[in-house]
Amino acid sequence: MRRAAMGLHTILFGLVGACAPALPSHRDATIAVAYEMPGGIEPVAGASATKALVTATDGRTTDRDRIGVFKLDRIGGAIADAYGIQTLVIRASNDVPETVRIAVERNLKAQGFWIGAGGATARVEVLRFSADFPIRFLGWGVAATVELRISVQNTANSTVFTKTYSGAASESDSSQADITMSMSKALGDSVSQMVSDKDFQTALFTAQKP
Questions:
Q1: 89-99 pLDDT, tens per residue?
Q2: What is the pTM of this model?
Q3: DSSP letter string, the chain
Q4: Domains recognised in the chain with CATH numbers
């Protein structure tokens, strides 16, 4: 519990800095969620003859940069009372759909696909990019979820495949670094499920023609 509380103190100290006489009831903390490219990606048979254009959109309708909300009053009010903050809002500082698009594109390229227009179009939609903060036995952890939906269109703009992939990751602590790491791992999990899906790969092959 002490470790988790220290993790929250790390975020709060960065937010608050020198003590101010009056703080709002909530504060924002931003993190940049990077995608870590895995090693050992094997070429996909037939990919070298297949062209794919990757696009990404944000399917979240409100507060799109928000990752999660930590209710500080769940800690008995000690930290909340000390800093005058009741709610800590974690937000992404980077462009999430663009980060996702680049991640998918890099994986397809590593598998041997040609990247560009004139063949299949892989449209990725970000449905969920969030973290919860469950109470653990020894404190508060992080449970991250990244949900992506892929739609493959052929050269006639007809959808030939669609599927949703949900990636997850967790950490036992709730420091800013742990939140960032969890989100990065959950993103990697979701993207990995997608690009390794044989049905998705087949859809890219078949979508080369109308």
A1: 899 999 999 99
A2: 0.84
A3: -HHHHHHHHHHHHHHH-S--S---SEEEEEE-----PPS-PPPPTTGGG-EEEEEEEE---SSTTEEEEEEGGGGTTHHHHHHT-SEEEEEE-S-HHHHHHHHHHHHHHHTTPEESSSSEEEEEEEEEEEEE--EETTEE-EEEEEEEEEEEE-TTS-EEEEEEEEEEEEESS-SHHHHHHHHHHHHHHHHHHHHT-HHHHHHHHHTT--
A4: 2-31+51-206 (3.40.50.10610)
